């Protein structure tokens, strides 16, 4: 079920009403949320509900074993969780990729290998809920949290529908305590939640989807376009993926608020960053902090000398790139970020500074833009061709396509940028911004957004990060 679908607009109010009718019994509310979450996920493909149930059973059981075991056995149970969860993720997401890569490598040396690929579908959201359950097991092993003994609460933590498919990747330390206690109907949370849901819909449906029309038309026929057109399409894509994914996160966080839950922030205006380091503290924060806490620090972080620090940064970003998809393009995307993060760290150390001046905004955006080419292009050849054309500066007339669609994309992008800048300069998180408005003002804002959605609705449906 998609957040931007009619089904969700019917599903959400129904669950909301029944949920608060059960307000005197939070355990019954949890049962409702669990059933609703499986319905939400099963709307896409009911067969893969079994994977979520398996992961939930596994980590519920293993978490208690880790907590109860003697020190010498704790690591064994942790390995059970790591190998089982990563094994499932590897089979569904990466087996065909590595099988194809192996066959291609062998063919280059004259050894033809029969096809080793499997006819399997990538379950939506498997990367997200796998990371979520892994962090739970690791946190118990590190003695940072206690194992949950409430099976319904834990299953709800794993599958809670607002964050099930594409995050934010919630930590057990934040979400499970909220699930295991009574929630009260909070008008402030509902106001801020409704505001954030509609901002998210505006970002996705009005801005991202209209930018995507131009991006798809150019990147789908990149061979016939000149550098100026490819540059504009890449800039559009940078904002398309931002408004698409931040819009999804807004709807997820806002939906959770309607049920009394506070999710962690996932985007903090990343394009207002003066360094790449700052960008990653603002972009997909739940993933970047997960990679920092469970991968970078586990590799040694910056505790073992500068060379090892650079190695850890590069490895973390390479694996972070691979997490996004089974393609070498994503690995290269991660490698670009890892390389420049290492260069930044070296520069800051050599010059004894903490950040760049205003030119840092331009530098950061250029690096991010270059990396996005590999993220968006279907393969390495097309990405390198597009990038070569852009940096050749042999620009010609700009391809416009449908003039009305192009103008709509420009106007909506400008409006989205102005709204972001306004909220950014107030220094109030978007998650709390709705509290500024009375019910009358909120109703007017929501009505205006609905009008914009009707005026600029496009036929696009899926969120970009569903493929990861």
UniProtKB/TrEMBL annotation:
InterPro entries reported for this sequence: Ac/AlaTfrase_AlgI/DltB (IPR024194), AlgI (IPR028362), MB_O-acyltransferase (IPR051085), MBOAT_fam (IPR004299)
TM ranges: 6-22, 31-57, 77-97, 109-131, 151-169, 189-207, 227-245, 330-348, 355-375, 395-419, 440-460
Superkingdom in the source lineage: Bacteria
A UniProt-annotated Pfam family: MBOAT
Entry keyword set: Acyltransferase, Cell membrane, Membrane, Transferase, Transmembrane, Transmembrane helix
Membrane topology (UniProt): Multi-pass membrane protein
Localization per Swiss-Prot or TrEMBL: Cell membrane
Family in the record: Belongs to the membrane-bound acyltransferase family.
UniProt-recorded name of the protein: MBOAT family protein
Species this chain originates from: Winogradskyella litoriviva
């Amino acid at each position: 079920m998609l957040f931007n679908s009619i089904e969700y607009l019917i599903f959400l109010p129904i669950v909301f009403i029944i949920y608060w009718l059960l307000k005197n019994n939070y355990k019954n509310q949890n049962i409702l949320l669990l059933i609703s979450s499986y319905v939400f996920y099963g709307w896409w493909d009911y067969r893969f509900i079994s994977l979520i149930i398996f992961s939930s059973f596994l980590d519920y059981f293993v978490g208690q074993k880790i907590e109860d075991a003697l020190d010498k056995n704790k690591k064994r149970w942790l390995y059970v969780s790591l190998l089982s969860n990563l094994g499932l993720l590897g089979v569904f997401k990466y087996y065909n990729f590595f099988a194809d890569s192996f066959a291609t490598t062998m063919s280059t040396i004259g050894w033809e290998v029969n096809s080793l690929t499997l006819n399997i579908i990538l379950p939506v959201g498997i990367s997200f809920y796998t990371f979520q359950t892994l962090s739970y097991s690791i946190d118990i092993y590190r003695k940072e949290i206690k194992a949950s003994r409430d099976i319904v609460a834990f299953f709800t933590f794993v599958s809670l529908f607002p964050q099930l498919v594409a995050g934010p990747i919630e930590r057990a330390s934040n979400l499970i305590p909220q699930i295991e206690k009574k929630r009260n109907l909070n008008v402030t949370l509902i106001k801020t939640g409704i505001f954030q849901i509609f901002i998210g819909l505006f970002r996705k449906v009005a801005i991202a989807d209209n930018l995507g029309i131009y991006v798809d038309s150019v990147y789908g026929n990149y061979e016939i376009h000149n550098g100026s057109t490819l540059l504009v399409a890449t800039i559009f894509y940078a904002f398309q993926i931002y408004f698409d994914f931040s819009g999804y996160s807004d709807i997820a966080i806002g939906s959770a608020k309607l049920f009394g839950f506070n999710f962690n922030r996932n985007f903090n205006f990343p394009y207002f960053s003066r360094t790449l380091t700052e960008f990653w503290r603002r972009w997909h924060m739940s993933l970047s902090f997960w990679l920092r806490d469970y991968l970078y620090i586990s590799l040694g972080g910056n505790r073992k000398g500068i060379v090892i620090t650079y190695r850890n940064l590069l490895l973390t970003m390479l694996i972070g790139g691979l997490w996004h998809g089974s393609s070498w393009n994503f690995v290269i995307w991660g490698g670009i970020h890892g390389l420049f993060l290492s260069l930044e760290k070296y520069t800051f150390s050599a010059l004894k500074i903490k950040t760049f001046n205003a030119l840092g905004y331009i530098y950061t955006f250029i690096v991010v833009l270059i990396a996005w080419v590999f993220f968006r292009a279907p393969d390495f050849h097309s990405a390198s061709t597009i990038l070569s054309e852009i940096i050749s500066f042999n620009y010609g007339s700009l391809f416009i396509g449908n003039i009305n669609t192009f103008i709509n994309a420009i106007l909506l992008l400008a409006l989205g940028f102005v709204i972001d800048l306004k909220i950014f300069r107030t220094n109030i998180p978007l998650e709390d911004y709705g509290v500024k408005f009375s019910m009358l003002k909120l109703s007017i804002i929501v009505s205006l957004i609905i009008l914009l959605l009707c005026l600029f609705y496009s036929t696009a449906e899926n969120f970009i990060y569903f493929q990861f």
